[in-house]
Amino acid sequence: MEPIGGITWMLLFAAAAGLFSLVVGLAVGRRMGALAGVAWFGLLWSLVVIAIVTLVPARNGLGYIPADEHATRCSWNINGPAPGGFWIFGGGQELLNTLLFVPAGVFGVVAASRWRAGRVLVPLGLLALAAYSLGIEETQLHVARIDRACDVTDIIDNVSGALIGVAAGLVLLPVLRPWRARSGHGHGTVTVRGRRR
Contact 164/108 with Cβ under 8 angstroms? Predict the structure, then answer.
């Protein structure tokens, strides 16, 4: 069996995840309205794409990586291993690490704001994205086979992207108003003086 890795496998996994997320989004949309369906589709797909991009080996045919050739601890070099500098201003890997988490932040805000508990769910969602980033780096550290490096800079970039996404989602809320679907259960019906319109 040929080892899994490289852009082709990432695209195949992303397409399969997109189809699955679409099915989930359609199911949610039928129950809670189109906007909720889009939000949950986008949130689920963005989370899976993050895992694909960060945990599938970057090179095809990588094969077995001996554990003694893999780093045994995380890099705490804030400038990171990439030569382009630090965070979004350096571009390259730093920019990709930041942009990867922006959609999850946006869709998470829109999905959570449908409920009155959104004020609590949005900050919890941001913490969950930070924990997700930490979990990815821990996986990269302990699973030598995927030939990835654990770096604290990646966590900073990821959390920065999540913050940007959450901020963008909050800006969009007055336009999208996901809480409108609370009455009428997402089907556009509103009860006015005992009548449905």
Answer: no
Rounded distance between C-alpha atoms, residue 71 and residue 186, angstroms: 50
How far is 34 from 192, CA to CA, in rounded Å? 22
SS3 191: strand
Q: Report the phi/psi class of residue 186: left, alpha or beta, with left for phi > 0 and alpha for psi in -120 to 50.
A: left
Side-chain-side CA neighbours of 149 within 13 Å: the count stands at 13
Tokens describing residue 95:
């920019």
Output Rg (C-alpha) for the chain, integer angstroms: 20
- Contact yes or no for 104/50 (Cβ under 8 A): yes
- Per-residue pLDDT of the chain (197 residues), as tens digits, is 456 788 888 999 999 999 999 999 999 999 999 999 999 999 999 999 999 999 998 877 555 556 566 667 777 777 655 444 444 445 577 888 999 999 999 999 999 988 888 899 999 999 999 999 999 999 988 887 787 888 888 999 999 999 999 999 999 999 988 887 654 444 444 444 555 54
Q: Helical H runs in 57-151?
A: 92-112, 118-142
Q: Tell me the C-alpha distance between 57 and 59, whole Å.
A: 6
pTM over 0.85: no
Burial class (CB in 10 A: 0-12, 13-18, 19+), 152: middle
